[in-house]
Amino acid sequence: MLEALKNAWKIPDLRRRIKFTLLMLVVFRIGAFVPVPGMNPEAVRQLIERGALLGFFDIIAGGAFKQFSVFAMSITPYINASIIVQLLTIVIPRWEELAKEGVEGRKVLARYTRYGTVILGLIQATGLAIGFRSALMYPGFFGSLLVVISLTAGTAFLMWVGEQINDKGIGNGISLLIFAGIVSRLPSGLYQIYQYVRVGTTNILMVILFAVFALAVIVGVIAVQQAERRVPVHYAKRVVGRRIYGGQTTHIPMKLNAAGVIPVIFAMSILLFPSTIAGFFPNSKIALSIANFIKPGGWLYASLYALLIVFFTYFYTAVTFNPVDVAENIKKYGGFIPGIRPGRPTAEYLNRIMTRITLIGAIFLAAIAVLPYLITGVTSLNIYFGGTALLIVIGVALETMKLIEAQMLMRHYQGFLK
Predict the structure, then answer these.
(1) Can you tell me where the transmembrane regions are (predicted)?
(2) What is the pLDDT of residues 43-82, one digit of tens each?
(3) Which of the listed CATH numbers 1.10.3370.10, 1.10.20.140, 2.30.40.10, 2.40.50.200 matches domain 203-380?
(4) Which residues pair with 252 in a beta bridge?
(5) Residue 97: is it exposed, middle or buried by C-beta count within 10 angstroms (0-12/13-18/19+)?
(6) Fewer beta carbons below 10 Å: N end or C end of the chain?
């Protein structure tokens, strides 16, 4: 990996993209310390420390939530808006057509996602302003309005930063922002473990057990991310004019986990949103019931978390991989899978393979995301970065490195042709 980064730094265009990406991440980290005007940070910090849910949400925001900065909501509204838009592309025929129109159609859906982000941001910011009204320095309508506008503007700015990284940087901008937020909290997490050992809350053996678990997760995630099922495809020879085409054998790489870390991010956002909103109304019996019903660390929360990860793994894989289109393209160019007839039988065969291998990948993601709750119970280490954080960090790092290597390969080919 270090060798790939070193080689990428030697290419001017890639060096410029990497510098731009790092600059945007620095802007993100600086913004995490810009406080929302009109709020008492100390009062907010005390309210956050009372609940594990808000503390876990602070990990995703990279510490911006506890500081109650303008980036306190992070890009959670954008993720929720993306989920809603992708679900509606299946329900609304017009949106389904836009998704199949290519670049122009995706631009329209991206615009809808931006609108949804602002709307959801306003709703979530209003909930935060109401929930933390005891920390307002200027109580009243205009004081709350100032908080709502500041938080929504911060989320909109992060959305713009993510899109700028997509266009001018390297990697997926939204994923990199989450990556930066989690990694920035790693030193404080390690210091927290040190404090647990120093005061006797836990012992060094439990810390070693946790380190072994983390290493096993890292190895497992890398193995699953790289694993793929290669389906052989034969192309018959064709004569076009005086040239002969085809007559070769290739394969279709079907990844064990084609969805990457997207299902984990989606599932986490879905579970955080209702519980967070419910926690802002402490005097409401319904809100308290919802908060207790979906409490992080409980069996119900872990079960729902695992089920949502499995669901979104299948959902995102179905969105990104269409076996019917793949089968039609194979048939169009005179290809066939040995022992399988072209057309519909090929599509059914590919769908059957994808369904089976996706189940393995989904179960693995769900297990890694849920295991930290068991490890916490065994080791008594009450830390917030666990399997979920490691999944996101490792998955984003692998995807970014693949993009860098693809960019290098493309430029090497260009140099060869020139």
Answers:
(1) 20-39, 78-95, 115-135, 141-161, 173-194, 200-224, 258-281, 301-321, 353-375, 381-401
(2) 777 666 655 445 555 555 555 666 778 888 888 888 888 8
(3) 1.10.3370.10
(4) 231
(5) exposed
(6) C
